[in-house]
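To assess whether the prediction recovers the assembly geometry, we first specified each molecular entity separately, as shown.
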Amino acid sequence: MSETDLFGNPVDPPRHTASGHFADVAIERGIDASPTGLTYAVPVGMGLSVGHRVLVPLGRGNKTATGYVVRLTTKTELDAGKLKPIQALAPGAIALPEPLVELARWVASYYVCPLGMVFGAMLPAAVTRGTGATRRQVVRPNADADASAVKLTKLQQAVLDAARHQAGWAELKHLADLAGAKSTSPVKQLIDKGMLETKHQEVVVSSLDLRAQQLAEPATRLTLGQGQQQALDSLSRRLGRFGVHLLHGVTGSGKTEVYLRLIEALRGQRETPPGVIVLVPEIALTPQTVGRFLARFGPDSVAVLHSGLTAAQRHAQWRRIEQGRVSIVVGARSAVFAPLDNLQLVIVDEEHDSSYKQDQLPRYHARDVAIKRAQMAGIPVVLGSATPSLESYANAVGLSAVDASSEQKRAPNPQLSIAKSPSHTYLHLPDRVPGMRLPEVEIIDLVEERKARRGIHLLSRRLEQRLAQVLEEGAQAMLLLNRRGYANYIACPDHNCGWMLTCPHCDATMVYHKDKRLPLGGLVRCHHCHYETVLPKTCPDSGHKVSVFGLGTQKVQAELGQKFPDARIARMDSDTMRRAEDYQQTLDRFRAGELDILLGTQMIAKGLDFPGVRLVGVVSADTSLNMPDFRASERTFQLIAQVAGRSGRSDRIGRVVLQSFNPEDHAVTRAAAHDYAGFAAHEIQTRVAMGLPPAGRLARIVCRDKDHVAVTRHARELAGHLSAANAALKLNVHLRGPHPCPIARVADHHRLEITLTADTPGPIQKLMTELRNQGQLISDQHTAVDVDPVSLL
Ligand code: ADP
Ligand code: ZN
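The predicted structure of the complete assembly is given in tokenized form:
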């Protein structure tokens, strides 16, 4: 009798199995046609393991494609005679460790993206291209040679001794240098005498000098504050097993010192140096955090990975990790995939930072991938922040512990209703390090300010006065405005006309950027598609002279220049900071006291530690408040709290002046009061009411096409499939849409979104997997699947 399935239909009889050696290969650029890879025959003697990057024939024309071995078997249900053989190992002998292959599978499944693309994201392009790699002759002592049989010169003996001290193969020049020889001749003579064996090996040449990036360590070892010590003790006890630990410490509470000590403790326990990954937001990397890790553990133990590196440098760093020459990796988002052996600890600093989410395929969240990697490895992960994401906070204190009526800031009140028990441990550092206090914050109501004063001023009288004071005292100030350019509205002054300059390719207004180098003194630019054009002089509809209003960092700089002509001011935004060096240089000048005021976008809000800063001004707390995104309040709170945290990092009290048209908004008032718990309680209640994260889980599918009819049809079809499968599988996922995205058109593409919400991630995953298996949901240029999205525009 043939077998039947749940619905009484006969199932296909199992196909015959053949034996031999077979490999499932995920194609690097492959679309989602086969989620687990394509099966190939393994030629005899190829010496293949899981994780190898290989060349395979693809399609009818057998065009060569690259892919990754994800599974090796001796049996297949396919017709073995028809399977194509793997052609060769890809150049560069690249292999990913097996745990990373496992992790890639999880990422591909959870974030609904092609497996091959996950591998593509795991490996820097510089590595697969072999940038900076050259073949060099290398040598090592010949174990079979009889040293007593040959006579050596002093120099030759010195070279041989140096070679014996090396762990493995060494370059000729390196040995010559160690032995104090002027040329490589003595090394070559030793090869001729058979004392050294030699081969040619690929080495990566790069000029990254990590030594120069070390920050000076304090002369005496710091005594940890009580909170730091408790957190450290608690974390030290939890080494060696999986757990997620949220280290919630206010700005300046010394979180970095806790990380450093924890790594020291871990290294003290193990014989071979344990692997540690430290993730840091991109922008915080270059100057300070890296410097502290390098200083503590030495440049020979630490690799860095960030976008400020050249391709060859990135390749060289990756090889140092892969070859086991370093045990600590400090890096941005993609460093979560660092091929470290013996991984024992992962730290995610500033875990709330939105740069951890990749906004293109694969759309993974590095914090969550870090948690998964730690879980698979059975090791702890530490999430640190002064302003934790509400997701992490709710996971740490439990939604049920969040109480909106609680006025107490020190510990969340363990009352209130919605039962959900914490999965993370919660470690709190409520105070700054000894001798340092949180700054005093004043809120300036810009509505009142406008009424009391003629003309438009970006700096309130109070902010101006505080700036003058700080400059007089010879201290420093930082000024935040989270919008670059000069002005973000270009419009007709005639209200009856109502014309406003929008991008011809996007549903967005254009921003005026001044630029003295240009013939017309500036241009207007779209911040979404980067389209640029000249500033129109008159309104195309009514002929009136256009007016330019709104605000941007350039305008603040102009006003500062007028009001404080003697102050040394620098602006830091992505217009002025094109390269990592620009950023580093400006920060160095600020640290050295060569600048009085540092003005910038959110770039200046993160992680910087300058004891000379006694004033922080927030020019407008409103830029992120009015975004059509349910996280607008959370972002605003984080931005204000983070930038405020740059003030008063010394024994002198710091001040913050916070300007807003919404001075009563709870994100503004709670940030001013340093009241994270109060903010979180209130905000989480709103989210619970709306069924949004962290109270539920969210995924978003954006359909995009230049053809409006096509995109509408596609989105409706997809929504139909989703709702049919949702009903058939009784998943209870809440489906909304399709409806236009908040920015309905970007770069001539019309955009429609469908959102999926549920109490837990399971049903959303099941639903999307079902559609994926049916071939109805494919991540491609028309369909962007975003699981746990952080941006909703
Ligand atoms: P966070 O990352 O929490 O904002 P940091 O780790 O940057 O704080 O520490 C802020 C400053 O305080 C740093 O300059 C650091 O060297 C210093 N610091 C850290 N721990 C102590 C301590 N126990 N005593 C004195 N200074 C400390
Ligand atoms: Zn545009």
